[in-house]
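Input structure tokens:
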């Protein structure tokens, strides 16, 4: 399967009379784009803003992040099974506006799964989005049925973001990319003897799929991830948009739709293919609530890995707490089967730093990479707010609480509520020092 990513490197975004791209500048026509947003009658108010690195601006509550792109050949849309017909992603050419993102922010109501982004100040670099220009959709909906729910599906806003990401991406459909990234991974039996002699490695992904009620979990080709069993997938499928981030779990531990498709861990495994490893593909797994579901999942994943002849695996967990049981169980099962593993996740040590960082621990899990501590505390000065800062305290954001906002507009929050800050996809730039 061969995928070409045509890259257009965005250095700035501005409003203008027409939507287009030229020499590093993405120009968008605000009214034209808002018509796309308002195609959903549940959107009651909407505006577009542009934020840039260094702006003294807070975005809250952030619902989603997406890369603006379009399908040029090999498919009909950038979200197959969601906005377009079901077809396998990962082949042909896709044009991408790289180095920027589309952020979706609630004008008012937030929830447990929503987050905060700082575009300037001390915490600007805690998310990748603080270091890039962003087009920001700020909108409200009539979804009153979940206004006071801690968990929100955010459906109207998330779908509006997807429509907008695809619409803007169309402006580079007929342009010549500045460079083309090629991802060409042949079928496993068709690889050369030299490649086959290298250790086979799998990327085992455990996206957030814990909600038994539909509408909250990660989508795979539009299918709720709670309803799948471990499945072997081609990495190109992820890089070409087969996954849509869910609307559940603490924000800093989320993998955004942007990161599912622009995935540095996948790209690093690709870069090592044929050099140091034989990259076997993506073993798509799940995170479950009940113990029998957890056991079934890891046992089936282990069988697939053994059948493929895997010698190594990178296991990635989206979340913490209850999902730690699935995470460590997967690591232990693969190690039991003779497959060397590295685990990639964040951790939760509690505000006092004294809690066990993973709910479940095992001596076999001796190669773990942490991307951050969800319990770390941050103190923010007063800054301009796009959205509504009160949502942090009022609406059950996982990093805020009643009283965390001071009368002068400064506030305190846990890393829990920093949007996708731990970047389980592999973007994290945090380091650990041993004193």
């Amino acid at each position: 399967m061969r995928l070409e990513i045509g890259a257009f490197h965005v250095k700035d975004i501005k409003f203008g009379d027409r939507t287009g791209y030229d020499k590093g500048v993405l120009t968008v026509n605000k009214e034209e784009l808002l018509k796309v947003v308002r195609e959903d009658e549940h959107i009651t108010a909407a505006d577009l803003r542009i934020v840039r690195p260094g702006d003294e601006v807070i975005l809250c509550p952030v619902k989603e992040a997406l890369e603006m792109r379009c399908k040029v050949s090999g498919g009909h849309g950038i979200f197959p099974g969601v906005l377009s017909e079901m077809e396998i992603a990962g082949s042909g050419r896709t044009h991408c506006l790289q180095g920027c993102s589309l952020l979706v922010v609630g004008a008012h109501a937030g929830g447990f799964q929503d987050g905060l982004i700082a575009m300037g100040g001390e915490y600007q670099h805690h998310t990748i989005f603080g270091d890039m220009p962003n087009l920001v959709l700020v909108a409200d909906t009539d979804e009153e049925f979940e206004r006071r729910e801690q968990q929100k599906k955010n459906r109207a806003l998330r779908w509006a973001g997807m429509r907008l990401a695809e619409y803007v991406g169309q402006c580079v459909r007929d342009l010549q990319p500045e460079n083309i990234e090629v991802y060409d991974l042949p079928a496993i039996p068709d690889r050369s003897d030299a490649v086959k002699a290298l250790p086979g490695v799998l990327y085992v992904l455990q996206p957030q799929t814990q909600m038994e009620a539909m509408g909250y979990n990660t989508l795979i080709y539009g299918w709720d991830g709670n309803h799948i069993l471990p499945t072997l997938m081609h990495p190109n499928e992820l890089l070409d948009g087969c996954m849509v981030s869910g609307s559940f779990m603490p924000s800093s531990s989320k993998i955004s739709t942007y990161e599912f498709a622009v995935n540095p861990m996948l790209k690093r495994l690709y870069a090592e293919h044929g050099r140091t490893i034989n990259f076997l593909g993506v073993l798509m797994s799940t995170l479950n609530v009940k113990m029998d579901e957890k056991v079934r999942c890891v046992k089936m994943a282990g069988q697939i890995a053994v059948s493929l002849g895997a010698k190594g695996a990178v296991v990635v967990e989206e979340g913490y707490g209850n999902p730690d049981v699935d995470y460590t169980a997967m690591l232990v099962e693969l190690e039991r089967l003779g497959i060397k593993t590295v685990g990639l996740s964040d951790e939760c040590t509690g505000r006092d730093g004294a809690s066990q960082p993973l709910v479940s621990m095992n001596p076999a899990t001796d190669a773990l990479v942490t991307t951050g501590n969800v319990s770390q505390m941050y103190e923010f000065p007063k800054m301009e707010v796009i959205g509504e800062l009160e949502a942090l305290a009022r609406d059950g954001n996982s990093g805020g609480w009643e009283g965390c906002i001071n009368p002068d507009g400064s506030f305190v929050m846990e890393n829990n509520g920093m949007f996708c800050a731990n970047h389980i996809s592999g973007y994290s730039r945090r380091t650990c020092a041993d004193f």
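The first strand starts at residue 2 and ends at 9. The chain has a mean pLDDT of 95.
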